[in-house]
Amino acid sequence: MTRWPAGLFAGVVVLTVAATLQAQTARPGLPGSRNTFGVTAEYSNDSSRILMGTAVNVKLGAVGLQYQRRLIANRHLVWSYAMEFRPVILESIPAVTYTTAYTLPIAVTITGSPQVTPKCVASSESFQFTDLKTGVVTAGSFYARCGRQTIYAQGFSPFGMKLNLPTRSRLQPTFSSYEGYIFSTQPVPSVNSGSFNFDFEIGAGLEYYRSPRSSVRLEYQVQHFSNHNTANSNPGVDNGLLKLTYSFGR
After folding, report:
1. Does the N-terminal or the C-terminal CB of the chain have fewer CB atoms within 10 Å?
2. pTM score, two decimals?
3. 3-state SS string over 128-161?
4. CB of 149 closer than 8 Å to CB of 95
5. What residues are paired with 197 via a beta bridge?
């Protein structure tokens, strides 16, 4: 990643303040509530260079809670402030395990712990050398094996917005974005990265209103997280997330 999109963050804050000053009640008959709560589940089977990330093959699954506060509602659009808390985020990341198998002077195998890495390349190499002072010969092989490691994290995105385009049916197109952070139990997506990462999401979907106060929403969101150069390494991760949300209001 190059730079955190500070302009987008500032834009969300400015728009939220501006919309609050212009808040108005909903048009009669418009589905939805002023205050809405939601439960979400999301999954990404891979990561790629969609925005600014460089780490690949990172899988992500999460469950979360949402809150939305409707600010503007008319026949053209419904614009809401949104925030999201994800208490459970599971990240499956490529990991490399290094093993040294000695054959001389004695047979012994030493295997290290898996280490997460932005990209794993399996390799093997034989070695042999002689100590010039003692004449002892040391020989064996060095292996790098690829696998995966699942890391637990949680995230909070207090700066967000959601836009609905009202239609005459119960089905409405939606657009949303969130900004916040993800904190993991260990550095991701590499051992030299940080455990604290900034998070940005943007996407679109369809929302179906089962009743005037409850809905089901299916979205595709692009998520980017990185540590903004606060650690020694900053590969960044881009995930394409499929997100399902059940919302209810009051």
Report:
1. C
2. 0.78
3. EEECCCCCCEEEEEEEEEEEEEEEEEEEEEEEEE
4. yes
5. 182
